[in-house]
Design a protein that fits this description.
Blueprint: E1 2-3, H1 14-21, H2 34-47, E2 51-55, H3 58-70, E3 75-79, H4 83-86, H5 91-94, E4 99-103, E5 105-106, E6 109-110, H6 112-118, E7 130-136, H7 149-161, E8 166-169, H8 173-180, H9 184-188, E9 193-197, E10 208-212, H10 214-226, H11 235-247, H12 252-269, E11 283-287, H13 295-304, E12 307-308, E13 310-313, E14 316-320, H14 327-342
Parallel strand pairs: 1-12, 3-4, 3-7, 7-8, 8-9
Antiparallel strand pairs: 2-10, 5-6, 9-10, 11-14, 13-14
Helix pairs in contact: 1-11, 2-11, 3-10, 12-14
Length: 344
């Protein structure tokens, strides 16, 4: 089965498994664990931040970041199709007890004029103050689009003018950096804090890091405990994450290449399916509307042909390339898709 549902389906490498076997077993939630501490220092260094805290998942990293910045209350300004609004079960309101305003955007980049209109430094008798400005890169719903650095700088400047912190949901920040030809720290510098996943594309089995100042990450540790994210003998999974950061980042452009190869092949089947020029990283979002069959039906029929792909909207499918997807797998997926398209 060729699995193109997500880059979270990657399996750990042999080097990761070896590192897990020799990892320390300290209690991270009590006295700390040496392997986790090494990972956190590495994550902070990769993003140019002072410190980092290891958490079990990307969704938890986003929730804890919300809490650590603003506790409860205040408004989060975020591009309207962002992951925290679309796919995290309302944690921003249900758990963090914060309000949000989804701003219009283009390819995941919020409209700067809308941000300028709605940002405000503090609560007054008529309006709720802005607690946090939120960016996401790469942007999932925008098909893995990368926020331009000039846009991120503009957002940061507007936030600073109003004394509002900025967080980057950088679940795939290393993909964004690779597409831009810069370091992850160059992307992260436009924020007060950033979170990223080691299980997306980097092949570690589990985990995310939240990076920021010493004060911010200490607050994050408290909220990590509040939401049930404290880890005990976390050394083995941290060991795999260290290998991911040290060995797997440099190969990400290969995933971008196979994604563009896939997009070009789909575009050749029918131009309405995808504009290959918009594919920047390892996500390919395609439309099957012209076929007259919904994405869920396409997903089921592709599975029968040995290809797993996720519906992400009524008429849209999302293909995600990763280290287990090479030219042969792309060719097989394209052949299966072409056969189905002919039968529409």
């Amino acid at each position: 089965m060729i699995d193109l549902r997500s880059d979270t389906v990657t399996q750990p490498t042999e080097a990761m498994l070896d590192a897990m076997q020799s990892a320390t077993f300290g209690d991270d939630s009590r006295d700390g664990d040496a392997t986790v501490q090494k990972l956190e220092a590495l994550g902070a260094g990769c993003t140019g931040k002072q410190a980092a805290v290891f958490v079990p998942s990307g969704t938890m990293s986003n929730l804890v970041s919300l809490l650590a910045h603003a506790d409860r209350g205040g408004e989060v300004l975020v591009e309207g199709t962002s992951h925290i609004l679309a796919a995290e079960l309302g944690g921003v309101g249900n758990v963090a007890a914060m309000f949000y305003r989804g701003l219009p955007g283009r390819r995941g980049a919020m409209n700067a004029d809308a941000l300028r209109e709605h940002i405000r430094p503090r609560i007054n008798r008529n309006q709720l103050g802005t607690a946090l400005v939120w960016m996401e890169t790469t942007h999932n719903a925008a098909g893995g689009a990368v926020l331009p650095l000039a846009h991120m700088a503009e957002v940061q400047a507007l936030a600073r003018d109003n004394e509002v912190p900025v967080h980057i949901d950088g679940a795939r920040i290393f993909n964004a950096a690779a597409a831009l030809g810069v370091s992850a720290a160059e992307v992260a510098k436009y924020s007060d804090s950033v979170s990223f996943c080691v299980s997306k594309g980097l092949s570690a089995p589990v985990g995310s890091l939240i990076c920021g100042t010493h004060e911010f990450t200490e607050r994050a540790r408290g909220f990590r405990r509040m939401v049930g994210g404290n880890l005990r003998q976390a050394g083995p999974i941290a060991a795999a994450a260290i290998v991911a950061l040290e060995n797997m980042v440099e190969r990400l452009p290969e995933d971008h290449r196979t994604a563009k190869q896939l997009a070009a092949g789909l575009h050749a089947i029918d131009a309405s399916i995808v504009d290959a020029a918009t594919v920047e990283t390892n996500l390919v979002r395609v439309s099957v509307r012209a076929s007259g069959r919904k994405a869920a039906d396409w997903s089921a029929e592709m599975k029968q042909r040995g290809v797993l792909v996720s519906p992400c909207a009524t008429w849209d499918l999302r293909f995600v390339t990763h280290r287990h997807i090479g030219d042969a797998e792309v060719d097989h997926a394209l052949s299966a898709f072409a056969d189905l398209w002919k039968s529409k």
